[in-house]
Each structure stands twice: as structure tokens, then as C-alpha cells.
Amino acid sequence: MFTALALVLGIATITSFNAGALDNAANKNKLPDIGISGYSILSTDKELQIGQAMMRQLRGSQPIIQDPVLIEYINHLGNTLVKNAQGVNYAFEFFIINNNELNAFAFFGGHVGIHSGLITTADTESELASVIAHEISHVTQRHLARRLESQSQTQSLTMAAMLSSILLTLVNPTVGMAALSASMAATQQASINYTRGNEKEADSVGIALLASSDFNPQGAASFFSKMSAKYRYASKPPAMLLTHPLPESRIAEARQRALNYPVRPLPPSLSFELTKARLKARYQGDARSNISFFTQQLKQKSYALEAAAKYGLALAYFENKQVNEAIKLLESLAQSDANNLFYVDALTDTYIANNQTNKAINMLKQLNLFMPNNQVVSLNYANALLANKDYDLAVQILQDFLLVNPSNFIAYDILTTLYRSQDKIGLMHMTKAEALALLGAYPKAIDELQTSYNFLEEQPLMQKRVKARILQLQEQENRLKRL
């Protein structure tokens, strides 16, 4: 239901759906015998390589939200589910794409993308968790590899063709489906039928995973029902419904499966509501209309949690350059929840904008003692130190952070700015190269490293590191071509 890839299988493409049917807790992640597991076509190592390559291409081509607070939230939520899943072969990475379409998808190597529009449409955290649990189930059941095995028996596939097709439709399935030719109709229908069976299985595994992770197991049926009702007569349904219609039978089955688990009514989640408010205030609409929206919420008490509405209003004030109003609201919220990273991040921005950078530094210095290498704390701390021109400490904070989080794009971006401010041109180009490599732009990254080499004449050890890194990136690029 929740991937954008279903209808492109007929043109040398794979979809990110998994398998695994069951309807009771005792049997929860046992797969039916549907044939080979996909290992003969694609090893786990190969999956990881392909997943990393696709992730780099997505970073370079799609509006992935590089927001440490939202990254922290979506990965915490996702990993809460992953720790209760079976068949997990690697670390998962969850990310948000700034797109109002209702869509989510999973692909090789445990990568799960969620469109921002889906998050803001969900009414409860259990509804959002049901989508993520569904996608996790696809990955852990290795359905992509199974689909490859099935398709390889009827078509000759090249990995390059599949990657190209997948990336065409990940974010915009309408475009991908429009590209299907009439000559592929028979293969396309076979792909749809195959996917529908696996969607049913993924619904079962996902609901079981939802329940075992202490979310409301009715979250899936609730979200299904809402989607079906909202878009039943729409001329342009969302991406998920274009690829996976929601017949009443599927909604009824999801509702029936959930009855196998204890009813778990949950209070509103503050982190979920703050995430929705942040997406609304920073990534949707304009500042003035958002001020009006959150003001009305507070006036009419039409919110799930008052704190989230106040937080959204504070962010909208900040976006409208009403910094003092933002600080008043945020400091009031932080009084009772000083370690809340949503508030910490927003206060850092407002303090810096209001020439109160020392307040931000003092706040973050204390938090860094309790949460070392937390991405929200470390990145905000480095940014505040940068604003205060305390470059050496900022570099140290980021270097320590990157030892633990070597693929963090934001950290490399800030570090590049720091080295530029210190007039360390060789290091600046080295760091910029790492940021480009994360986008899959290997030729540009190698160019940056070659430039850095010329600025490091008095540092022969650094020059050796640059040479070694060039060889590594060249090998990564060649490995990608060999997939």
C-alpha cells in the first residue's frame, strides 16, 4: 500500500514490498512458503551496496529534509519498531522528503522514506507508525530480492536499468506509471498481481509489529479508512492510492487482524505533535498564514496538545522575523521540559538571531555533557560556536561527532563553513568533497580532493590521506558501475 514503485516492475524495476502473512501473535513473523528467499540473486552485502548508492542519488536529486530534529524523531520512531522486528540484517535509515504527497517507500539496505504530507495527514502516532511498520516488514522479509528472482526468470535485467526506473518513480509515481508502454501490459499485470499478494502479507506482519511495539494495532485500519474516505471520489488520488487501491476488503481485513491484539488506546504523543507542528511551520505555507493557523488553534483549542500549537506558533513567529515573540513562547515551553530537543533547536536559532548567542552556547554546553554526539545537540552547538567565532571548539565538536556519524551531511556542511572561516582552504575542499560524495557526485568530490591536495603542500601526511581518499572514491564509483 505504501510504496510508490508497484506499477513499474514491468520495465525492469523492483518494488519495495515484503512478504510474511500471519494473523496471530504466536506466529507473528513466520513467512508462508512462497519459494526462494532471494539470496540466489542478491546477497545482503549487495543489497547494502545498492541501497547506499540509491540513497546517495536521492540526496542529490530529491528534497530530503536535512533537519536534525526531524531526523532524530523519525529514526527514533522507526527504530522503536525495528527492535521488535525479526529478520533485521542491517541498520535502518529513515528519512523525510519535503513533499505534500501522501507516500512512503522502502528500498534496499533498510532505507525507508516518508513524505512530509503523510506525516501531517496522520492524526495519531500509531497511524504513522503503521505505515512505517508496513515498510519495515517489506525490508525484513526481503521482498525486493524475491521480486528480482521472479522477474529474472522472464526478463534480462541490469542493475543500472532497475536503479534508474526505481528512482524515476520513488517520489513521483504518476510520472513513472505514465512511462509504461502498452507493449508491457502483460508483464505489468503480472507484477501488479504479485504485489497485491505481498501487500496483504505485509499488512499482517506490519500490524503484528505495530502491536508488539506498544502502538495501537488499530492504527493501520484507521489510516486505511481515512485515506479511502478522503480520496474515494478524488480526480487525482495520492501516490499510495494510485499504486495500491484500498478496497473495502483490505480495510476490513486490517480491522479484523487488529482485533487479535489487545486494545491499546494511547494519549497523544508530544513528539509526534511537535513534528507535525514543525513541518507545518517550517516546510508548508508562508509565515503569516501559519501564524494565523496556530493562533486559531490556540484560540479554539482545536489541538491535540497545547504545547505543540504554541511551538508551531513560535516557529511561525521566527520565520516571520518576530524573534522576541518566538523566544517568549519557547522559553515558557522549555521551563517545564528543558531537555526537549525540539525546544532546544528552536531556542538556539532564536538566540543567535537575537544576538544572544552566549545563551545558546551555555544551554548546549550543558546538554552536550549529558548527550554527547547527539545530532541535535552537537550540530546546534557547533552552529552556535560558529556564530560566536569560536572556530576551534566548533571544529572539535564536529570532528568528534563525525567519528560516530560519518555520513551526516549537515555536519560536513557546517565544517566546510568553519574551515572557510579559518582560511584553511585545503581542509575546506576535503570536507566539501565528503559532502559531495554523500550525494553520489563522485567526479565533483574527486575534483575537490585534487584541489585540496594543492593547498596542502606543507602537510605531506594530509596529502597522503587525500590520495588514499581519491582512490577510495574512484573504487566506489567503479563498484557502482559494476552493479
UniProtKB/TrEMBL annotation:
The active site is at 135, 203 (proton donor). GO terms for cellular component: membrane; periplasmic space. It is found in: Periplasm. Gene3D superfamilies: Metalloproteases ('zincins'), catalytic domain (3.30.2010.10), Tetratricopeptide repeat domain (1.25.40.10). Its cofactor is Zn(2+). InterPro entries: Mito/Outer_Membr_Metalloprot, Peptidase_M48, Protease_BepA, TPR-like_helical_dom_sf. One of its GO terms (molecular function) is zinc ion binding. One of its GO terms (biological process) is proteolysis involved in protein catabolic process. Zn(2+) binds at residues 134, 138, 199. Residues 74-257 form the Peptidase M48 domain. Keywords: Hydrolase, Metal-binding, Metalloprotease, Periplasm, Protease, Signal, Zinc. Binds 1 zinc ion per subunit. Its EC number is 3.4.-.-. Residues 1-21 form the signal peptide. Belongs to the peptidase M48 family. BepA subfamily. Functions as both a chaperone and a metalloprotease. Maintains the integrity of the outer membrane by promoting either the assembly or the elimination of outer membrane proteins, depending on their folding state. This is Putative beta-barrel assembly-enhancing protease. It comes from Colwellia ponticola.
